[in-house]
Amino acid sequence: MELLRRIDRGISRGEAAVATLVLLAMIVVAAAQALLRNLTNTGAGWANEALTQIAWADQFLQKGTLWVAFLGASLAVHSNKHIGIDVLSRVVPPVVRSIIHGIIGVAAGVICFYLARVFYMSIVINAADVPLDYEVLLPSGNRGHLCDIAGSELASQGIDRPDLFCAIRHLLGKIGVPATTPETVMQLIVPPALMLMSVRFVLKGIGSF
Q1: Closest CA to 191 of 124, 127, 108, 130
Q2: Per-residue confidence (pLDDT) for residue 139, from 0 to 100
């Protein structure tokens, strides 16, 4: 158990670091977007062009909120600072209180496990449909994901390949995780966060018993 606690503390430090970086990036992107929008009202043409270049900002802020929320929830479970309705446990003897905490911990762990499974399956189902923005029409008449098309073919159609996303998609594909868009990649934080919360709840429940 002590080894597991040490591992959990290390994971929590990593979660806190990632959550901090994502939050800082969100603040910078949101501030830049707001500044550029204000500049467009003054007639600055270059600000309009810059806004076009960061058209991904809204999606990033939306998915970044998801990352901060689930990493924060996982950290709250680690620190025992998650929301809990513990009126009954305040008035019962210590032994009964430990049993109640144990049952709640294991039950919460099971719920988080199935939530992680359901959310992952929904990502898999959604990944089966490739959005038009990421589809390329081939000379044969077939369509393919732009990350799966040869660079020369994309160049001939005047399409730029998102190399970073394609690299991440390729790595995820190696372990059988589907990803059709950057938004799908960003959503993949939810299943592992829920699984980590599940393990933490179960171990805390066992500890209470």
Answers
A1: 124
A2: 67
